[in-house]
């Protein structure tokens, strides 16, 4: 069995990941961790996440960033389900100690230091490690993930957006003179478990946020190699992302070329479902799938693509498991489907 530790296991992504690892036929939990001064230190994991009662009998152990390397000899891999700045430091220490790390935060997803400073608000301390990190978009970077010691698991909106756009970009069908426009809505779990006014029950409505300034704009653009306009919305539901993407295709592109691009990109990729009807959050909630469907307006040459995922699963934890599957020599979907 591959033994894994999860740091940030009290949070939404970490808890879901613990559930996936618990059920996985090849992996087992070595330890579940929270921060040094966590209010949840030494609590039972299942006392916080009751759906795992009598399933995962573990205590949440506090660990400091400076002590993180001591986990390396105790397990085969460490998942960081922690805030960005905490991940910057911990991932560096784990790699330095010879460990394998899957970071679910945004700490190692971008390559340009000035863009990181602009969108994340801090100066990245380990630029050389940024060049070693592999972007864990599992359907696209499998060969690199298999060799990586640091995998930067993509953000939730970028997973939904890139899954929809990359087949068209690879097939060179996108008219580069018109910037693709992504409108996406996420359930409130995307903002994490800790109490915040903006995600409290009476405040959550259905509204745009981070307009023209969200950190996922440069993440999508970098890994698509094309600029995008991205507008996230907070929805009044718990989980799931629906992204509606409008883009202009090169003149003369027909529906057969588009269908071919998606079929070529995702043939044999079980976790991407090319649907015959419009995706809906209820069809992906609680699943590791990306659902895609598209329609071409032949009059204008514009294409609408809709993508749906569960933000905590394909947008975080289950994609992290896909990456770990690849890294340790298993099929990408092992233990997930
Ligand atoms: N929720 C989602 O849909 C997605 C989340 N992500 C990313 O995954 C990561 C986790 O997100 P999410 O689960 O939503 O966040 P939560 O706020 O729900 O959980 C964060 C976890 O990190 C722990 N933590 C905080 N600071 C530290 C630290 N310095 N050292 C160790 N543990 C720490 C927290 O526990 P405590 O503070 O008690 O120590 C908690 O367990 C984030 O980087 C997020 O951006 C990515 C994609 C989607
Ligand atoms: C609804 C909501 O607030 N969603 C989060 C995205 C969560 C995610 O994917 O996160 P990271 O890039 O931080 O890992 C946000 O917009 O910040």
What is the correct CATH architecture of the largest domain? 2-Layer Sandwich
SSE ordering? EHEHEEHEHHEHEHEEHEEHEHEEH
Q: Unreliable segments (pLDDT under 50, ≥5 consecutive)?
A: none
Structural class: alpha/beta
Q: How far apart, in Å, are the first and last alpha carbons? A: 19 Å
Bound small molecules, by name, code or SMILES, are:
NADPH dihydro-nicotinamide-adenine-dinucleotide phosphate, N-acetyl-L-glutamyl 5-phosphate
Which bin fits the share of residues in helices? 25-40%
Global mean pLDDT? 98
CATH topology of the largest domain: Dihydrodipicolinate Reductase, domain 2
* Backbone shape: globular
Number of domains: 2
Q: Which percent range describes the beta-strand content?
A: 15-25%
Strand order of the largest sheet: 3-2-1-4-5-7-6
Give the radius of gyration.
Answer: 19 Å
Described by strand count, sense and barrel closure, the largest sheet is: 7 strands, parallel
The CATH homologous superfamily of the largest domain is named: Dihydrodipicolinate Reductase, domain 2
- How many runs of DSSP E, i.e. beta strands? 14
The CATH C-level class name of the largest domain: Alpha Beta
- What count of helical segments does DSSP give? 11
Domain Semialdehyde dehydrogenase NAD-binding: 3-148
Family: Belongs to the NAGSA dehydrogenase family. Type 1 subfamily.
Keywords: Amino-acid biosynthesis, Arginine biosynthesis, Cytoplasm, NADP, Oxidoreductase
Pathway: Amino-acid biosynthesis; L-arginine biosynthesis; N(2)-acetyl-L-ornithine from L-glutamate: step 3/4
């Amino acid at each position: 069995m591959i033994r894994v530790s999860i740091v940030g296991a009290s949070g939404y992504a970490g808890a879901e990941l613990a559930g996936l690892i618990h059920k996985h036929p090849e992996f087992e939990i070595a330890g579940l961790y929270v921060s040094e001064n966590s209010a949840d230190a030494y609590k039972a994991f299942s006392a916080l996440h009751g759906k795992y009662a009598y399933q995962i009998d573990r205590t949440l152990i506090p660990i400091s960033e400076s002590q993180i390397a001591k986990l390396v000899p105790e397990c085969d891999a460490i998942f960081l389900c922690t805030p960005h700045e905490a991940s910057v430091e911990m991932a560096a220490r784990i790699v330095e100690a010879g460990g394998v790390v899957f970071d679910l935060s945004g700490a190692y997803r971008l390559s340009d230091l000035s863009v990181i400073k602009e969108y994340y608000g801090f100066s990245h301390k380990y630029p050389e490690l940024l060049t070693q990190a592999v972007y864990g978009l599992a359907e696209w970077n499998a060969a690199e993930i298999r060799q990586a010691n640091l995998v930067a698991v993509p953000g939730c909106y970028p997973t939904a957006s890139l899954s929809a756009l990359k087949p068209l970009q690879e097939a060179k069908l996108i008219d580069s003179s018109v910037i693709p426009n992504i409108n996406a809505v996420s359930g409130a779990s995307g903002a994490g478990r800790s109490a915040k006014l903006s995600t409290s029950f009476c405040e959550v409505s259905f509204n745009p946020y981070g307009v023209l300034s969200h950190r996922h704009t440069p993440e999508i653009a970098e890994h698509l190699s094309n600029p995008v306009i991205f507008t996230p919305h907070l929805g009044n539901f718990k989980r799931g992302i629906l992204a509606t993407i409008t883009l202009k295709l090169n003149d003369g592109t027909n529906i057969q070329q588009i269908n071919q691009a998606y079929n070529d990109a995702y043939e044999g990729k079980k976790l991407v479902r090319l649907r015959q009807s419009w995706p809906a959050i209820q069809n992906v909630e609680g699943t590791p799938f990306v659902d895609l469907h598209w329609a071409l307006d032949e009059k204008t040459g514009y294409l609408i693509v809709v993508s749906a995922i569960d933000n905590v699963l394909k947008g975080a934890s289950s994609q992290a498991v896909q990456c770990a599957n690849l890294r340790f020599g298993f099929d990408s979907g092992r233990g997930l489907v």
